[in-house]
Amino acid sequence: MEPIHFTVGSEKRFVEFISGLNDKDKIALISHTDLDGVASAKVVNEVVDADIVKLVNYEELNDKLIADFKEQKIKRLILTDLMMDNMDFMKKAGKEFEVLWIDHHKIIEDVNSDKIAYLNPGGNNNYCAAYLCYYLFSKIQDLECYDWLVACACLSDFTVYKNREWMEKVFAKYEDKSEIKPMSSERGALQDVKRMLEFAIIYFKTVKNLEKILELIGKDINEVRALEKYADEVRAEIEEIVERFEKEREEINGRFVFEFSPKFNIGSLTSNTISMKYPDKTVILLRPLEEDKYAVSMRRQNSKEDVDKLMKNCLQGLEGAGGGGHVPAAGGHFLKKDLNLFKERLKKL
Ligand SMILES: [Mn+2]
User: Fold this and answer.
1) Which of 10, 296, 298, 335 is most buried per CB count within 10 Å?
2) How many domains does the chain have?
3) Which residue range forms the structural domain that includes residue 265?
């Protein structure tokens, strides 16, 4: 692997943290809830065998988590693929634990200290976290058995350019002849597994048991088929909704409007799938939320209508409503009681 330059932290800091590990200090490993986060946790845990492994959303990085770890006598905390927009959590964590933080998101502050080793290459999102973990921990232990999983994370996080040579080697090893690009619809051993893992992650997030996926992913790429049945449930729901869209959509002023309430968290995946099928149509999808609101997404793939503007005009002045985005894609929400008003506005705009 080509050497990686870290803008904050260094391989020396990493090695210091690792050589400080011992049998008696309890370790917690936390990582993000997407494919990059899952792959990072899998790679790191192969080496450190943490006492607690948790996949967390950003809002869970709070005082309660630190208190829980303290109560469980955690001494060392490892974070991977976790973005932070301020350093409050890290500074508090650095007071309680020896911390290793490996990340590739925007660098807000260099929080390296005697207690915190923070490694981030910075720059233009060249590497995903799983690749960074694989690169660093491979210096301690041979992790080639997980190269396929790391390659899937690279595809999923759009980080397949800077590490091109390595990606090519892994694609060749697994005889995947597809073009190495994110969002590919081509078939191939790695592309297929990557899409399947993304769907399986949606499944386990919905049943609130994402850590289960770490148990089910093994070293052998062929074993990962055990996850297929979960991924298929999610895939089937998307297909079913797309089919229903074809039959049940309303057309208001040349735009497609459709309401659906999925079991899985597939709102944006479904919006993308449908709008890519109709690039010259504005597609408006409504999803009832648990409270008294609708989530609304608007997409226009060819950008011939500014859906950010449309969204703002439709929601203007509505009680408890808000939203916006960019020319081709916007999201928002409004109260259920305003559905008719929302549609009336669509007729006039
Ligand atoms: Mn990531």
Assistant:
1) 298
2) 2
3) 249-348
Query: Is 272's pLDDT higher than 90?
Result: no
| Dist. CA 257 → ligand 1 center (Å) | 33
Percent of the chain at pLDDT > 90 equals 93
Distance 38 CA to ligand 1 centre (A): 10
Q: Cα–Cα distance between 122 and 4 in angstroms, integer? A: 11
CA of 80 to the centre of ligand 1 (A): 9
Average pLDDT, rounded, for the chain: 95
Q: In angstroms, what is the span from residue 83 Cα to ligand 1's centroid?
A: 8
| Ligand 1: centre distance to CA 135 (Å) | 15
Q: 160 C-alpha to center of ligand 1: Å?
A: 12
Tokens of 336: 């259920």
Could you give the count of Cα atoms lying within 13 Å of 294 in the half-sphere of its Cβ?
23
- How far does residue 240's CA lie from ligand 1's centre (Å)? 30
What's the confidence (pLDDT) of residue 245?
A: 97
Ligand 1 centroid – CA 147 distance (Å) = 16
175 secondary structure, DSSP code? T
Going from the Cα of 292 to the center of ligand 1, the distance in angstroms, rounded, reads 33
Residues 55 and 152 reside in one and the same domain: yes
| Residues 217 and 256 both lie in one domain | no
> What angle in degrees, to the nearest 10, is found between the helix axes of 147-156 and 189-206?
70
Asked whether residue 220 falls in the same domain as residue 341, the answer is: no
66-110: per-residue pLDDT in tens? Answer: 999 999 999 999 999 999 989 999 999 999 999 999 999 999 999
In a domain, 80, yes or no: yes
| Residues 240-257: tens digit of each pLDDT | 999 999 999 999 999 999
Q: What is the pTM of this model?
A: 0.88
Is 304 in the same domain as 157? Answer: no
Residues 52 and 196 placed together within one structural domain of the fold = yes
Residue 164, pLDDT above cutoff 90: yes
